[in-house]
Amino acid sequence: MELTTAPRKKVVVLDYGFGNVRSAERALAHVGAEVEITRDYDRAMAAEGLLVPGVGAFAACMRGLKEARGDWIIGRRLAGGRPVMGICVGMQILFGRGIEHGVETEGLDEWPGTVGPLKADVVPHMGWNTVDAAEGSALFAGLPADARYYFVHSYAVHDWELETSNPHMAAPKVTWATHGRPFVAAVENGPLWATQFHPEKSGDAGAQLLTNWINTL
Fold first, then answer.
1. Which member of 125, 153, 158, 198 is catalytic?
2. Strand, coil or helix: what is 35?
3. Cis link prior to 112 (omega < 30° from 0)?
4. Residues 25, 110, 188, 200: which is the catalytic one?
5. Active-site residue 101, yes or no?
6. Which of 66, 111, 118, 149 gives a 20 to 30 Å CA spacing to 185?
7. Is residue 65 predicted with pLDDT exceeding 60?
8. Average per-residue pLDDT in the chain?
């Protein structure tokens, strides 16, 4: 696969204590972005793109995010139409709530919906999988339908609940994957994009996907 080169844009990887920020930094730098790891409010607000990683439990990630004022940063950026991308649990916390071991935790509620246990015989879902990309997706532009992406997770969103009835508003583009039953693998919703899989661990396909995001900044 021939990898196109992204323009040099400034991207901040939000450092709130959860997520492999160094892997994300290397992957973004590899496709030509100028990358900084920080939780500094002014720097995160000034960057052309904000990447929100996430590894671990939903509740712990939400605590860390709030302690770093990440919820405020994300909300303020989105209010101004400034691009944000979430990865793995960094995607899950964008939904209304997460339920782990019977404990319910409020998310950022950018999208309605519940993050719950994967409904599959084998959990966690760990390894390579294909996706059913949304029609007209910019995130998956130029990527073949059989491209594979790297997943590591035990929880997911199985039902997309947001309805867009306003004809003047573009409906979010929702990409699905299947492990046991279908779950949300990626979302493109105005300035807010997210993936359940790890593009920084997904080889050339993940690099092209990050390039596609950077090209929109």
1. 198
2. strand
3. no
4. 200
5. no
6. 66
7. yes
8. 94
- Digit-coded pLDDT (tens) for 10-22: 999 999 999 889 9
Place of tokens 């959860």: 18
The whole-number pLDDT of residue 72 equals 97
Q: How far apart are CA 62 and CA 54, in angstroms?
A: 10
198 is annotated as an active-site residue: yes
The three-point CA angle 50-51-55 to 5° equals: 150
Catalytic pick among 88, 110, 153, 188: 88
pLDDT category of residue 163 using cuts at 50, 70 and 90: confident
pLDDT in tens, 98-153: 999 889 999 999 999 999 999 999 999 999 999 999 999 999 999 999 999 999 99
The 3-state DSSP class for residue 78 equals helix
Strand order in 10-14's β-sheet? Answer: 34-38, 10-14, 49-52, 84-87, 192-195, 181-189, 173-179
Write down the pLDDT at residue 169: 67
Instruction: Measure the CA–CA gap between 87 and 54, rounded to whole angstroms.
Output: 6
Whole-angstrom distance, CA of residue 16 vs CA of residue 101? 23
Angle between helices 203-214 and 21-30 (to 10 degrees): 80
Any catalytic annotation for residue 161?
Answer: no
Query: Torsions phi, psi of 120, nearest 5?
Result: -150, 160
Domains of the chain: 10-104+111-214 (3.40.50.880)
Q: What share of the chain is helix, strand, coil (3-state, %, to 5)?
A: 25, 30, 45
At 204, give phi and psi (nearest 5°).
Answer: -65, -35
Residues near 66 by Cβ (< 8 Å), separated by ≥ 6?
A: none
